[in-house]
Design a protein that fits this description.
Layout (H helix, E strand, L loop, with lengths): L1 H25 L16 E14 L5 E8 L3 E4 L6 E3 L2 H10 L15 E8 L2 E15 L4 E8 L10 E2 L2 E8 L9
Antiparallel strand pairs: 1-2, 1-3, 1-8, 1-9, 2-7, 3-4, 5-6, 5-9, 6-7
């Protein structure tokens, strides 16, 4: 009888170990690249315009002109959760400040992706684009970007439209929380 108890306990122990091993193999593993070092927060930027237009530059490059733009809103993910508004000119100065230093994740050397959301009377249209070569005319409050469509999102966008919003990915990874 005591042997049966030992066999039962041994069998239960073995099954428990196997269950833990199998469970640990099925737990999802997430990419570590999305974890943000609190000393180096990454910011997303949101820019809004009252009206905009798109024109073709060549077979791959397009021109986006944003009128009456709001100041960009920058926000970071966990753990920092920083929110800041800065002028459009400050935003573009940061774009070019890092120059071609790829270590600093410069937009100049590594152009950002963005979602362009267009609001019109029929609803919303969204496209994924890569932005480069921005310029801002402070006097006329016009912001321009060259861009390429990404992920086969070339849409049938109108050449002129009303309100538009850009959500720009991972900006200014070289900033520290003390900067904000």
């Amino acid at each position: 009888m005591q042997n049966n108890k030992l066999i039962s306990i041994s069998l239960l122990s073995t099954l428990s170990i196997l269950l833990v091993a199998v469970t640990s193999l099925t737990i999802p593993v997430y990419a570590q690249e999305n974890i943000i070092d609190s000393k180096q927060p990454k910011f997303f930027a949101i820019q809004h315009a009252q009206s905009a237009s798109i024109s073709k530059v060549n077979a791959t490059t397009n021109f986006l002109e944003l009128h009456d733009v709001s100041n960009p809103i920058l926000f970071s993910d966990r753990p920092d959760r920083i929110v800041k508004t800065e002028s459009t000119q400050q935003f573009l100065d940061r774009w070019y400040d890092a120059g071609t230093d790829t270590k600093n994740n410069s937009f100049f050397s590594d152009p950002p992706n963005a979602a362009l959301v267009i609001d019109d009377q029929e609803g919303q249209d969204e496209v994924v684009i890569e932005l480069f070569e921005p310029a801002y005319d402070y006097d006329s409050d016009v912001l321009v970007y060259n861009f390429n469509y990404l992920n086969n999102t070339v849409g049938k966008l109108p050449s002129e439209f009303g309100q538009a919003t850009l959500v720009i990915d991972s900006t200014f990874a070289n900033a520290t929380p003390g900067d904000y």
